[in-house]
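Feature request, filed as a ticket because there's no other form

It would be nice if the structure record came with a short human-readable summary line next to the tokens. Right now we just get the raw output. Example of a typical job, pasted below so the devs can see what we mean:
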Amino acid sequence: MKVAVIGATHAGVFSAKQIKAEHPEAEIDVFEKNQTVSFLSCGIALWIGDHVSSPEKMFYESPESLNAQGITMHMGTEVTEADLANKHLVYKDLDSGKEAAADYDKIVITTGSKAIKPNLPGIYSDRVFDSKNWDNANDLKKVTPEIKSAIVIGAGYIGAELAEQLSVNGKQVTLIDGLDRVLAKNTSADFSQVFEDAYVEHGVELALNQMVESFEETETGIKVNTDKGSYEADIAILGIGFLPNTGLFKDQVKMLQNGAIETNEYMETSVPGVFAAGDAATVFYNPTGKYDYIPLATNAVRQGVLVGKNIEKNTVAYQGTQATSAVELYDLAYAATGLTVEAAAVKGVDTETVTIKEDYRPDFMLSTTSVQASLTWEKGTKRIVGAAFLSKHDISQAANVVSLAIENKMTIDQLAMTDFFFQPNFGQPINYVSSVAMAAAAKAAQ
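Raw output as currently delivered:
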């Protein structure tokens, strides 16, 4: 079996490794236009903030290690033509310009995503930085020690983390977003307020509900003009979001309107023998029961493994995702899974939600910390569709617990009665996950 894998970030790496594990005899060619693989881009803000022990450790594989595993790596090589129906690829070495072509039995599309970069006046200035890949990370790492101020555009996870790390390292930061609150697509309004207060406390200027219209270079830096004002700093950083990098395959496979490639539960596209995974592909989103586009490394890894298990025949079906995620800003840990009540309304799911706040362990302990917890459920069925937790205590695994509950279609009543241990070092007699579920059940019964 001869397999081509196009792209070598998380989905591509795990696809290739799993195919080799399942089929040691397989000939696997991986095409990657960059010179690195498996970069953990979620660590960019941490690296800029000097919280990374070694940048080399931000990669869990290398081209050399994959070659040693029997996978043929074509680095600095771009696939320029793809005839998916006939499994025919044309590719070019970006250094020499030399082109070649090959035919395959199977093709795996793991081309990932591309940063959203609107065609605004001045956006291609050398003082406007991207925050997507290894090259972007290097560019930012070189410049940030020298700057005194920065404008971060986009208040999702990436922008929020960049703004936080720059501010705690003594930079004057302005955070701009087109929506009316920070992390608006990740949190409910009451959680956003906690983070907004923390930003203000650390001197970050919040420019929310504003759309960027242009960029202008100044004698000392960059000016960002919005529909409501202008802001100046030494540099600007884009963290607006991502779109699937799938233009090469347009009109050959079924896609969502944004270009995300549709697959079945075995990661196969509408073209037999062609698979897709990671940021290039859709996910089955369990809270809504529909396919969606949710670019997360966790989704990419699992889908890549599934490609390897199903490359020859349907073996293991995709269990779907809850898009569980987390972020830490100013020592505030936030972890969430599934839908917020605001996101549910956008996606047409009729929900209710409840929020509680209580200490994570008994007050007789010498120290304890409060936890803010919310649970969201579908009206009528009481099926859990989302949860969020916020604290200076590590509450990250609570989101994983509720993620399992969502995947297994548990109700708020079932979660309220689920057995969780009690030991005062770790928690209350009623764990805060149980407590928020009980509050939800009580509200639903009214």
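Something like this underneath would help us a lot:
The mean pLDDT is 96.
The chain has three domains: 2-34+60-113+244-310, 128-238, 327-445.
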